[in-house]
Prior knowledge:
Layout: H1 2-22, H2 30-54, H3 65-72, H4 79-84, H5 105-114, H6 116-123, H7 127-152, H8 169-174, H9 177-199, H10 209-228, H11 241-245
Helix pairs in contact: 1-9, 5-9, 6-7, 7-9
Amino acid sequence: GAEFAVDTFFFLSALLATFLTLTARKPVPWALYVFHRWWRLTPVLALVMLVYAKLVPFLGSGPLWSGAWAAIQQDQSTWWATLLYIVSVYPGKGNQVYMSWTWFLGVEMPLSMLVLPPIIALYRRRRSWGWAAVVLLFVASVCYGLWAVSAWDLNNYVFAMPIKPDRTYSNEFYMKVWTRAPAYLLGVALAFVLEHLAEHGNRMVRVPAAGRAGIYVVAAVLLLATAFGQAGQYEHATRSPWGTFS
């Protein structure tokens, strides 16, 4: 479930941020837009990091505390990469990222900057440029992902034992900006569509009952295939204490 939950987060983040930007009634100061995204997250992240490193060690106990303690006391030299949202590039490996559970911020922030040129193009009514950029980025990300999985025999489950120890799914695919981009770009694309409909008076397309039923069936099949079609990939997953009780 976590695999799809993260993509859902990226999709919704892109959809809401893009749609609200495109439908803003006042001119958008783009430099302030970038600063606001950084300022909204970074002070809070820095405070959480300070509490995690200096206060949390005095608050825990219990049978599972040794694992949490080991995570807190891991190499803290990469803290600055976490604050700069560059963990996809440096250190590039999940077990070397300080506060590794914040890795998704190191993907979402660069993605929000990556899609800024297409958003600006659409905002300035250069729709073809914006759409072309989004489609190009989407195709490039999907092609790279397919190549990486094939070239390195990556398992598509983050906790599975890697086929090649030096190339794990977690490090090469799961936490990389250039492989997690499709979900984010789909959110941007849907925002483009919704903005176009809003600009033209929300003219809705009427779909017959049979057509709606067909859409529901296709959506259900895709959902089930996505969730259960890769069940065989979980056979060699490593076990955790949480999995025993879930």
